[in-house]
Amino acid sequence: MVLQVPTHRKRTQWDRIATVAATAQHVADPAALPESVRVAEQAITNLRPPNGDKWTPEAARELFAITPGITYLNAGGYGVAPKPVMAVRQAWLDAAEAEPTDYSNSVDLFLPRATVAVAEFVNADPQDILFAYNTTNAVNTVLKSWGLGPMDRILTVSIAYPAVAFTIGYVQELTGAKSVQLTIPLPATREKIISAFSEMLRTSCAQPTMAVFDHVSSATALRLPVEELVQLCRQNGIWTVIDGAHGIGLVPLDLKKMDPDVYISNVHKWGFAPRGCAFLYVKRQHHARVRPLITSHGHSHRGGIQAEFFWPGTTDLSPILSVPAALAFWHTVVRDFDRNHRLAVAAAHFLAKTVDGYLIAGEDQMLAAMALIVLPRVTPEIVRRVPASTVREQVAQGVPVPALDGATPADATYATEGPEVEELSPAVLAGALHDQVRAQYGVDAIFTTVQGQVAVRIAAQVFNGPDDYVKLARALRAAILG
């Protein structure tokens, strides 16, 4: 008997992943996909609006598993994977369980499809694209492996995501690097931010060596002028690490034009991938700097960064394998960035006017498809309309972001006076208001705090329509104005 060696077996997986990811011409033929995956992906390509050529919010909502009766205005929180994309993921999971060994030995043939899909969507070279579980994971990967030291100074912003800020603090302890924070002026405009950034660079005694800032900030939902900020950093010899957690699928991305040193984005937020899935773009000249948090079989392999990141150990790769389907869904159903942006802007101004609030975005171009509306009329006194049990729970937890499954019992008692009301922090008020609006009106939006005041963050996704924000406005008026 003569042993026949298949072509794909003539090199190790790490050799193959390094070579295949480097060029779109070597991506596995769709015919090689498991049949169930191929069928599920084709179903996405075949999606058509039931009436006309555009998807209405009502028709689009049928493509998601959102609980009936819930008006979901937090698409930016954790993302929402459509049912057709989840069907693709399930097909990959079934393939893995049907033949675990064969799946594990050949999965590298299919992962580059995801690499190329992302690269094409954001205009980057495939060999510069890596995957991570989420943006927090990827930020940790970059900052902890970059080789920062006592002579380095990290520039960050006041609206940074807390996990990113904590990571920078830890890296300072770990490496001796220093940090400096730029306060983003609110209400924010592009001109104000660029001016503040330029002034800091001009007057800083010690020039930063790295800048870490958001593309679209999380709690404040501000779209920063990243192209201009990256250019300023490049002119001053500063490395740029962009937290684009809200990036791919939310705003147009052209990484070759933007030219950051590092760009990180969750594909599961606005790109419809299953959680958790993020991509990490690393400029070619920095490949040697960035190493995965987990040292695994690809360590020091001649295949370089692609080989090192390919296999962190046995794990569920189905969210990454589902990326081509997720981005195909975006192209088929969402199609462009304008519709969600216009809806979010209109809804934000409507809500601000209806509930006597205001936007922290000083101009509409500071918004993508999310917006933060400050609610100055939310004071401790309105707690009389919030169940006392909810208030006590919020106080006990001391957590700014509430659980999403609170319910108001029919016989709830209410706190109407006393020191308990006086001592409520804005964060507790935000949590209690979230629970009330969700439980009584079925509206799920994010309530947070900014500058010591309660605020509500809304998002606009393909399944949202104007009526959703009217419903939120009614709920807020009832809660705030009585």
Automatic annotation (TrEMBL):
Q: Which Gene3D superfamilies match?
A: Type I PLP-dependent aspartate aminotransferase-like (Major domain) (3.40.640.10)
Q: Which UniProt keywords apply?
A: Pyridoxal phosphate
Check the record and name the SUPFAM superfamilies matching this protein: PLP-dependent transferases
Cited InterPro entries: Aminotrans_V_dom, PyrdxlP-dep_Trfase, PyrdxlP-dep_Trfase_major
Task: Tell me yes or no: is Cell inner membrane among this UniProt entry's keywords.
Answer: no
Q: Where is the Aminotransferase class V domain?
A: 114-362
Pfam families per UniProt: Aminotran_5
Work out whether the entry's keyword set contains Iron. Answer: no
What is the designated name of this protein?
Aminotransferase class V domain-containing protein
